[in-house]
Structures are given as structure tokens and as C-alpha cells.
Amino acid sequence: MVCITILTTVLGEKLCYTQAMNHQLILNEPIANGLDVIGDRWTLLILREAFYGSTRFEQFCERISISRATLTRRLNALIDNEILYKAPYSETSKRFEYKFTQRGLGLMSSSLLAVQWEADWRENNDRQSSVIQRLHHSVCGQRLSPKPVCRACKLPVRFDEVNWLDMSEQLDRQLEEIRASNAKHRKSKPKPTDSELEKDPGLVSMIGDRWTILLLIACFFNTKKFDAFINQLNIPSSVLADRLKFLIEAGVLTRVAYQANPVRHEYQLTEKGKSLFPFIMSLRQWVVENMAPSSQREGRLIHSACGKPLVLDVVCGGCGQKPWPEDIELK
After folding, report:
1. Lesser CB count within 10 Å: N end or C end of the chain?
2. Cβ pair 113, 282 in contact under 8 A
3. Could you give the residue ranges of the DSSP H alpha helices within the chain?
4. Closest residue by Cα to residue 303 from 278, 323, 321
């Protein structure tokens, strides 16, 4: 039996909710702080390699070409936040390996969705496809195909069947929460370079940039027009044009004319972009459940198919049961 360790590829920006002045926010600093723990590009790569079985310092160094000093800092941060822990190779060994805590194991749902997404959408996906084909659910004996469902009604969670309560009234305020937290915690990171994308053309490169993930969040709030992005995100027009081009080239957005004279365009999520939604919701839910104060865990996301607050479960597509780490085999 193989206890699967966890890949998590995290929103570079902040997805969260809290209660303030009788209003619930999707986006807010407390959950932003939680996502900051695992939102660094190097950290994402470290956690991804952990999913593929890396546990030792030298393995991480070799497989992601990271400096020893940077790796040490990121591993220590993950340990400090109780996502990883350090264990000796053996009772007599002075060397250590890095394993997931129970909190870290809670990232399994988003990890499975991330690997499935890369297997489905990434062009050079041999590694991801190999892993997803080898995953089996020991409870039913079938290949494990992760399926995101609503906990209340057990139906699949679709992009257009999730509503934010009071969204229209609170959108500006929610986006201001992201901007304020972004300015407080760190400066915007540049778009990944071509060389970085060549090394890692998957989720890490796509959503590791601050402005890029802000645009995706705005798109999930149904923002589509160039001026609307500028007004809501306070993003420089040159940066916006650059990031929109990047997302179009990545196949996540498409540019569509909505007016003929003069010609004007809007930016819509493609099926590839919409398919990121369950992963983002699963990741957000992990932060809410594991790092948010208990008073801030009541959600305002509603699954319109059943009318219940959305709690997303990732189940085995074969038997419909939620897989636990000890139930997953890598054959």
C-alpha cells in the first residue's frame, strides 16, 4: 500500500472568506495569510515533487534545480506551518526525510484535482498521465479518477452551478481585499519567463503570478471587459494586456468581439479555464478548514443544483467514495 503524498499547486493570490460587519467575503486577509504559506512558486514545486515521491533533501535539489539555501528556507516554512514534518531515515541515522502531517494530507483532494488537470490539459504531460493512470482506489479496486462533488447532494460541481451570495453588492469590496492584502504581503511577481515556462508549463507557471491569478479570480466573478479589469483590479493597462495575452496563449481565456462598430472585445473563460474552478474551490476549502478561525468558516458559496452551501468533496469516480491516503495505491 502506498500512502500518497500531496501535490498542491496554489493560487498565487488570495481566495478566502470571512465575516465582517454582517457581511461574508469570499476574499479576505485571514485566508489570504493561509494561502501565503504555500503560495510561493518554489514551495509549489517542492510540494509537487513530494506528491511524486520525493522525501529527501537531495531529491528535491536535483528534481527542481533549486539552491540549497532556498530549499532549506521553504522546507522550514512548511514545517513551521505544520504541513510537513522532519523524520530520521532510521533510528540510527542523522539524516532526515520530509513527510506530510495530517494537515498536509488534507491537501490530497486539491492535489488529485491538480494532477488530473495537468494530465487532461498539459501538452507535455507524460509524467502526470503516468501518475494518474497508476493511481488505484483499494476500496473498489478501480483506477482512481478524482471527481469533485457537492457534499450535500453528491452531484458533480460545475462552474456555472455555484453562486456567491451578495456577489453584486460586495464585488468591489472583495476585490479591494485582494489588492490590499497583495500590497501588504509582497510585491507583484513578474510573469513567468519563457525559460521558466519551458521547465514547468503546468499549473505552477500558470497561476503562480500575482496579476495572472487576480485576473482569473475576476473572471470567476464574471468580469470580462478590459476597462472592468482595470477598474476592479487597479492593474496598469500594459500589465493587463500582457497577462491577458499570456492567458489567451495558455488557452485559459479567449478574446471575443461583442461590438462591431467600433470593434470591442471581451475576455471569456474557455473550457480549460473553467476546469480550474473545482481545483481552486478545493484549495480554498482546505485553507478555510485548516487555517481559518472557527468563527470565519461559514460559507457564502451556494451550489445552485441543490441550494445548499457548497462543501466540495473529491471522490473516486468508480465507487463514489472519498479516498483516504491509506486507500490509494500507486501501481
Report:
1. C
2. yes
3. 29-37, 41-51, 57-64, 68-80, 102-105, 108-121, 126-134, 167-185, 194-199, 203-207, 210-220, 226-233, 237-249, 271-274, 277-291
4. 278
First vs last C-alpha separation in the chain: 9
* CA 197 to each of CA 71, 122, 250: distance values in angstroms, whole numbers, following the listed order: 20, 12, 11
Cell of 264: 470591442
Provide the CB-side half-sphere exposure for 116 (13 A, CA): 21
Model pTM score: 0.73
Which amino acid, residue 228? A
Q: What is the pLDDT along the chain (331 residues), one digit of tens a residue?
A: 333 333 333 333 333 322 222 223 334 444 455 556 666 678 878 887 887 778 999 999 998 888 999 999 999 999 998 999 999 988 787 889 999 898 888 888 888 888 888 888 877 777 777 878 888 999 999 999 999 999 999 999 888 888 876 554 444 555 555 555 555 544 444 444 444 434 444 677 676 666 777 788 778 878 899 998 888 777 889 999 999 998 999 899 999 998 888 889 999 999 999 998 888 778 777 877 877 666 555 556 789 999 998 889 999 999 999 888 778 887 7
